[in-house]
Amino acid sequence: MAAQGDFEAMERAWTRAVELAPENAAAWSNRGTARLQAGRWRDAYDDLSYALQLETRAFGGDNVADGVSALLLNQLANSEGALGRWEDAMQHYRMAAEDPEMESIAAANYALAAFETGRQQLAVREARQLLRRDPSFLDMRAALVAFLWAGGEPAAAEGEWEALQQANGGLGSALYGRASAVARVRNRWPPRATAALGAFLLLSDRGSAEGYDGQRHEYVFEAARAG
């Protein structure tokens, strides 16, 4: 159903699973994920937060070390960010990153959340730490381009862009070329980072992107203009 993009069928199937096993955290988590994919942020948050309550009750704690699913924590953070609850989202991304299998994804989401909330230096620092561990993390290198451009570091942004285009034997340019980069990150990144990448490609201090509310939002990156 997910592969076919049939969110209504996914919803019905997981709702039936919840009805059959109302204390099963995975059923609630999976329905929440389906609702997240459908853009139903509040409903997704309700399901995912309840799944976390069930896991916390079962494991006696709310951390990965206690047995809580890092994927659940990451998805819960995604729903919180979509609702504008970025402080909660960052906390849960950080918790999810404690799982080695989820570390890179959750840490990347943490960096994007930091940028969304205007924490420029934190976003750049987190992105660079991720790239030191994994230089082939193409999505995070693209994000670093956006962070640096918005922060008034055009030369550094251009350097990271060139590194991205050359990465993995040209795979970087195939996936994140000038004509495809914004489309690749749209609806995956928070809107401010998407807008900043678009502004970089246009050599502009302004960018726009669709927000979680479905409306187009305009951003002015003053530092980029000053640079």
UniProtKB/TrEMBL annotation:
PROSITE patterns: TPR. Keywords: Repeat, TPR repeat. The keyword Repeat applies. This is TPR repeat-containing protein. TPR repeats lie at residues 25-58. The keyword rRNA-binding does not apply. Signal peptide: none annotated.
